[in-house]
Amino acid sequence: MTGGLxxxxxxxxxxxxxxxEYRAGFISQVVFMVLNDMFLLFFWWIVFGRVxxxxxxxxxxxxxxxxxxxxxxxxxxxxxxxxxRLPVLIAEGQLDYYMLLxxxxxxxxxxxxxxxxxxxxxxxxxxxxxxxGPDGLGPLVVFSMSAAAGAAVFTSFGVIxxxxxxxxxxxxxxxxxxxxxxxxxxxxxxxxxxxxVRVALYSLIPAGFVVYLPARLVRxxxxxxxxxxxxxxxxxxxxxxWMFRRGLSRYESGSLxxxxx
Amino acid sequence: MGLAKYVHxxxxxxxxxxxxxxxxxxxxxxxxxxxxxxxxLWKVLGPSPGVLPEGFSQKExxxxxxxxxxxxxxxxxxxxxxxxxxxxxxxxxALGRPYSYLGFKLATYWGDTSLRMMVNVxxxxxxxxxxxxxxxxxxxxxxxxxxxxxxxLTLNFFMVMCLSLSAFWVExxxxxxxxxxxxxxxxxxxxxxxxxxxxxxRRAAAVxxxxxxxxxxxxxxxxxxxxxxxxxxxxxxVWVVILGALAAGLYAMGVRRLNxxxx
Amino acid sequence: MxxxxxxxxxxxxxxxxxxxxxxxxxxxxxxAGFRSLMSPQYSEVRAVKAVSFEVEEGETLAFIGPNxxxxxxxxxxxxxxLYPTVGQASVLGMTPWRDRQTLAHRIGCVFGQxxxxxxxxxxxxxxxxxxxxxxxxxxxxxxxxGMLVDRFELEPLxxxxxxKLSLGQRMRxxxxxxxxxxxxxxxxxxxxxxxxxxARRSIRELITEMNREEGVTVFLTSHDVGDIEQVCSRVMxxxxxxxxxxxxxxxxxxxxxxxxxxxxxxDLGVGAGAGGDGGLRYGDEDDDGNDDxxxxxxxxxxxxxxxxxxxxxxxxxxxxxxxxxxxxxxARLMQIGRIADITIADPPLEQIIAExxxxxx
Lengths: 261, 263, 361
What we know:
The complex is a heterotrimer of chains A (261), B (263) and C (361). Chain A has 261 residues and is mainly alpha-helical. Chain A has 13 helices and no strands. Chain A has one domain. Chain A has helices at 2-20, 23-48, 59-79, 86-91, 96-99, 105-111, 117-132, 137-168, 172-186, 195-201, 207-219, 223-248, 255-259. In chain A, helix 8 (137-168) packs parallel to helix 12. The longest helix of chain A has 32 residues, at 137-168. Chain A starts with a helix and ends with a helix. Chain B is mainly alpha-helical and 263 residues long. Helix content of chain B is 74%, strand content 0%. Chain B has ten helices and no strands. Chain C folds into two domains: 4-18 and 48-255, Rossmann fold (3-Layer(aba) Sandwich), CATH 3.40.50; 259-345, Alpha-Beta Plaits. Chain C is built from 13 helices and 13 strands. In chain C, a hairpin with a 2-residue loop joins strand 8 (234-239) and strand 9. Chain C is globular.
């Protein structure tokens, strides 16, 4: 476990160092993403200029929601930056390199790339949490832990959708749509959605676990909810790992695509 | 003079894009999703007093968003293509051809955009009808709304074109388009009509050309009046001419520069 | 399955390895697209059909064959990247696709077209990262790296971003990186592709040295005869998914590499007995279509020499060095005209393989 963590950390440092080779590009990517995320709040600023709550959610709750989404997403793409590219890497047979090294290929693939703009998302999320979030250290600790769980769920769903490429060949669209839907739903308060859609948001589209539960926990901590979140994160990771492993035995390495057909 | 060939170019590009109808439909899935979320949002917010500005009902807000998002997601992406052509010097190819570069690009843009808009109009109308029901529309109004939308999309073309052509002088144009999309989002009134805004921001949006791309045509759909229509179309035409001239000037200057530097 | 004793001798065993790929068939058109979505049509490609061989520890084997012969697929099965459809394999006593992670500690791989170096970082950083990936103890890593840096002369390259290195420098780093964890078997897939003559020679020497000094088993694929001749002692030819020939490089040289291709440009102008030597008056343009017809007229009917092509003073000859030495051929050519330019090359590997087939049938 600690070996795995240090492995992830080493790769993250390397990705950073690699990105730092172009310092100006690095800084602008991060700064732009912070600014970009600030625009998400613009709409809510207009809305809350006219109403005091949306389905019982205050402006602060919405800020926590946006912060959770930004940090979960930002952690996922900056630490496990290859997640969105997984279906392409599988379909194009670009996993060879990882399979030749003595590490778990899934973890290794995921950490081998970093989307630097994700650091901007994390900075935005932490920043608005500190500025506009609930006071005190407690909510910040809860926020950090549940955003980490949210990142794990988001990444795991990305891996599950991406691993479909082993079985159906082209899975890029479905994985993009899944991530897009999660992010889109994750930007709006949970009370807007009821019935079957609410069920979907806690199953097919994991926005419920990526942002709604973390936002609820920051609002009022509850051990049961926290346990559910952590358990689901562990479950999602296990399913993702299992899917990828199952797929690997069907893996068709790259050169064939190029030389035949 | 020679307009036929541009129509032909647009038609060919339209036909070519139908091969990627799957991608267009997927884009529409996102469009339908956003509409659905806002329908839910206005349902929750609607009953609160003082939420809606003068002259807007929940129903009209949904139709407004359907119209503004249809334009936002319907405009064909040309920015990176043009920037790349400038960077690689491929833009010079147009010099040896019997058409204007801007005209050619506008034609291909419209070929792609018209397909996207057709799909979006169908999907937007279906979602809005199902969610909140019809708003009063006559064929004549629809036609005039269509004209305003066409001008809005043309205006967008020239705005993007000016930014893209700046690639002659600027290393990375990416940030420009990012800023443009955010400006459209705020000053264009993408999610809510600018009437929602605090007064000073509303006035800033109203004088900017960006509201002519999203807000003005979308508001015409839900609250039509002839005077506003005339004013909108007038302003759109003025800005199309200004930005069209600017784009033509940038192109001419840029190409000269390209020749001097040898590409 | 394999006893310890056997492991000591055999580095690689392949037993009836075969791999069948399913390739989906897509027809053009929207309707056909939907149809293939509903009921996809597959055709089978048998990339490797029942390959069996053994490689002893410390051996240097060239694994060659034309493109699409099944080389890469075989290597990928032996390194655990691909599961075979049927058959067994053992590398250092392990089943590659089952014990992939354990095996990875003991094999090294260089796949010519695919870099393991981080493009924007200096090689030193990649080596550091690999030390973590392979869990190498600090002092062992430092010693090993020091040795490799010395041996591969990497010191001046260590702090330069990989993107700024030449292809040859990069390949030296690649091979050093693959040796960092002291593997027992080294798989090299076209390690010299795209390199210039000097870089090629240095890569070959380094591989040979590591084999001699550390007893690393070398399993190499290449399209370059030089790689095979200078690095390997044994050669195996694979074609159409089966082993077509398995022999020593010495035997290969004796039997097949005796052919050389000589390209020469003769100065036929002044002083070369223009007109005197009737055999060399090649009309002007009219002989393009029928070289062979004029070959006899060229007066080069030396035994063991076949004129592949000639035009004006330019000759392309294939010389069987078992029959006639290159010296003799040159002497004969100099009688005809002054030699303005000359290159002597091995025939392309494809041709050698083609000949093996012709003879082996």
